[in-house]
Design goal:
Layout lengths: L11 H12 L4 H8 L3 H10 L6 H14 L24 H10 L11 E5 L6 E5 L9 H9 L1 H4 L2
Antiparallel strand pairs: 1-2
Length: about 150
Amino acid sequence: MLERKDKKGMTASQEKQIRELRMRGIGYRAIGSVVGVSRDIVRNFCKARGLEGYAKALTKNVMEQMQSGEACFYCGKRMEQPYTGRPRKFCSNQCRRDWWKAHPEAVEKRKTAVYQQTCACCGITFEAYGNRNRKYCSHNCYIKDRFWREENGI
């Protein structure tokens, strides 16, 4: 699948990579060589998104802003907090989804919601989180048991 380039000639994955490398404290030239764009394109991208300045000072400032709630946890973009209600952690739903996808270890799962089950098709014991009525260990076992039972003599 080909990625669409924006009007500046960068793909979304390149933008994401530039943002991540910049947050680690890497300079414009090094980022440009890794991503495959010129130093000036990286510098202009960073200036437009508030990521300019000395890299080490930038990462320290952005981390402080994230902790205080002034910046998005995922992309580091500055955001304003609402006057009432819960403070925001992410600037958009996309950033929220991407952060949780990148940090599955941060999900706090309850130990009481894990159930030991036996698959109705293959007989393997598996763990089901949050669903005590689950019958199958996988979608493939569900398909085999539901549609292929008579043909295979199961």
